[in-house]
Amino acid sequence: MKKQHQVILSLGTNQGNRLENIERCIDSLHNEIGTIIRISKLYETPSWGFESEKFYNCALVMHTHKPAHQILEECLLLEEALGRVREDVEGYQPRIIDIDVIAFDEEIIATQKLQVPHPEMHNRLFVLLPMKDLNLDWRHPILQKYLHELLVLSEDKSNCKVIQTLELPIDKLKLDHFNYIAIEGNIGAGKTTLTNKLAEDFNAKSVFERFADNPFLPKFYEDQNRYAFPLEMSFLADRYQQISDDLAQFDLFKDFIVADYHIFKSLIFAKVTLAEDEFRLYKTMFDIIYKEMPKPDLYIYLYQSTERLLANIKERGRSYEQEIPAEYLEKINNGYLDYIKSQTALNVLIIDVTNRDFQNNQEDYVFVLNEIQNKIQN
């Protein structure tokens, strides 16, 4: 699984309603470009390098799968959408909003359009002080110094005054209502991607299914009748062992845990793949195991159309999945929906993500977060 990039941005404004400009920019960044996971206090600082009104400044950390140059382009477009007009004159100018890409992971990027780390960041107190609030274990990859060292060495003695705290957008999503969330979906629905993003963005403990380690899976896709029973039994044993081991490491009353599967999927797949007599034997074993398993506080089912699932499966390119028939996926989906209807005591949220790409499109990811928030409120 590909980790998200950690992007540090610096925001500034000295025109109009400065607080409103900063708050609008934060919301737009979060809703359109990337997930804001940390934010500094708001500072009032003198203009730097020219005479003008005082600025409001802050810094933030964003998670995203997007490359650095795309982040820059989208930030420039957002500045324009928020009313910034760039004059074709030399020197610094007053501005309604300014978004600077300060750092991208600990990479060094030097192109005509983008330089990171920002070449002047270590000389500017209005960047360093807000960055210190972020409590990052970040080291300047060129200067090889941490933030507290850069602050000591900085010759900028500007009077930077704390104005207030700023609201972090993800704090509106009260995920602390839950300790254990299970995310489910058909093959190719994106459950692992969403689990990974939630775990990274909300500092959660993650549990991922070890499906790639199952030696029967490629054989099953070649000869389903022969390998269905050993496949389902091995999956059940592995899921039981993994959940038992992984959840034993955590405190289900204190830790926040996100898993990309729930053990009941074993019964759903088995009902589709096994012959009737095999399924009866399987269910006997399953019922014994299921009684011992902790139940999630929230069960999220990601629904996607069969056509979209087939496209996703083709795109991710696992050779043993390429011959999965549409009918099989439809049976799996119906199995999930039948299970959900029968589980009156389970807190279920169904999200239709057929036309959503929550890995590459921030608006789609925010849609998913809002669906979870609505579930919490209701």
Describe this structure in words.
With 378 residues, the chain is of the alpha/beta class. Helix content is 41%, strand content 17%. The chain has 12 helices and 13 strands. The protein has helices at residues 18-32, 68-81, 125-133, 147-153, 191-201, 216-222, 224-248, 265-273, 276-290, 306-316, 326-342, 362-377, and strands spanning 5-13, 35-39, 42-45, 55-64, 98-104, 109-110, 115-116, 161-164, 180-185, 205-207, 257-259, 298-303, 348-352. Strands 1, 2, 3, 4, 5 and 8 form a 6-stranded antiparallel sheet that branches. It has a 5-stranded parallel sheet with strand order 10-11-9-12-13, sandwiched between helices. A hairpin with a 4-residue loop joins strand 6 (109-110) and strand 7 (115-116). Helix 7 (224-248) packs parallel to helix 9 (276-290). The model has no long low-confidence stretch (mean pLDDT 90).
